[in-house]
């Protein structure tokens, strides 16, 4: 069974631009969560989607948004990029909302110049 | 002070050594404890999941929770070069799966040398 895929794997943007990252969960998984990982802050939860609805949201500004499609694929968008948004963005999928085990993708490494 | 503290290392050991990785925490409400392994250029993968205090063993890996000391450990026996990775602890007061309430350590980088 194919794992979680994320595209693109690497991205370079400049301040003020916006970016869209994509995540395809494991087949049959309906819950998708997004995380930001930085050396200083570690993993921080962004949001979780299940059945196309945002179920949980972390403490990030409104510039960070996401959505989930009917096929469970998810996208996250960051508008008006700041230097501090440079990070590894990880997507994780699980069978259902609240499932104990989540499977992470390889991440998208975003560099904001 | 962070809710979860984890020594970033790096920790370097010879092949076959017993490795001890640790996290301390301040929130006494934490009851669910996890260890993840993250290889370079990969996402984290769940290694161990424990509830409350006690030990849990899975092959060469043993997870230990001491709630009285607010301290959790992951032991790796007969360490292999393939164990070289960053190990992240994560914990929560809520049942597993509530990702919003999951608090992560920064990770410990481990290198096992042949």
Q: Could you explain how this protein is built, in words?
A:
The complex is a heterodimer of chains A (113) and B (114). Chain A has 113 residues and is mostly beta strands. Helix content of chain A is 0%, strand content 53%. In chain A, the strands form two sheets. In chain A, strands 2, 4, 5, 6, 9, 10 and 11 form a seven-stranded mixed sheet that branches. Chain A has a four-stranded antiparallel sheet with strand order 1-3-8-7, with no helix packed on it. Chain A starts with a strand and ends with a strand. The model of chain A has no long low-confidence stretch (mean pLDDT 94). In chain B, the strands form two sheets. In chain B, strands 2, 4, 5, 9, 10 and 11 form a six-stranded mixed sheet that branches. Chain B has a five-stranded antiparallel sheet with strand order 1-3-8-7-6, with no helix packed on it. The interface between A and B is medium-sized, with 28 and 20 residues.
Keywords:
heterodimer, A: 113 residues, mainly beta, seven-stranded mixed sheet, four-stranded antiparallel sheet, B: 114 residues, six-stranded mixed sheet, five-stranded antiparallel sheet
Radius of gyration of chain A: 13 Å
Structural class of chain A: mainly beta
Low-confidence stretches of chain A: none
Q: What is the alpha-carbon Rg of chain B in Å?
A: 13 Å
Helix-residue proportion of chain A: under 10%
């Amino acid at each position: 069974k194919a794992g979680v895929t994320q595209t693109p794997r690497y991205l370079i943007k400049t301040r003020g631009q916006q970016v869209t990252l994509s995540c395809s969960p494991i087949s049959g998984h309906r819950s998708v969560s997004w995380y930001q990982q930085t050396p200083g802050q570690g993993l921080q939860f962004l949001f979780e989607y299940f059945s196309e609805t945002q179920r949980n949201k972390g403490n990030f500004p409104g510039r960070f948004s996401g959505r989930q499609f009917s096929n469970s694929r998810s996208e996250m968008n960051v508008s008006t990029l700041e230097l501090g948004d440079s990070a590894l963005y990880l997507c994780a999928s699980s069978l259902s909302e609240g499932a104990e085990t989540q499977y992470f993708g390889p991440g998208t490494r975003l560099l904001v110049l | 002070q962070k809710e979860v503290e984890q020594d970033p290392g790096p920790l370097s050991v010879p092949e076959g050594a017993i490795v001890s990785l640790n996290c301390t925490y301040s929130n006494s409400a934490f009851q669910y404890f996890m260890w993840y392994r993250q290889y370079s250029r990969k996402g984290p993968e769940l290694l161990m999941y424990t509830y409350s205090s006690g030990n849990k063993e899975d092959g060469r890996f043993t997870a230990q929770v001491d709630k009285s000391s607010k301290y959790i450990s992951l032991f790796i026996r007969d360490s292999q070069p393939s164990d070289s990775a960053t190990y992240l602890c994560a914990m929560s007061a809520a049942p597993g799966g509530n990702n919003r309430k999951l608090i992560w350590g920064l990770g410990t980088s481990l290198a096992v040398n042949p």
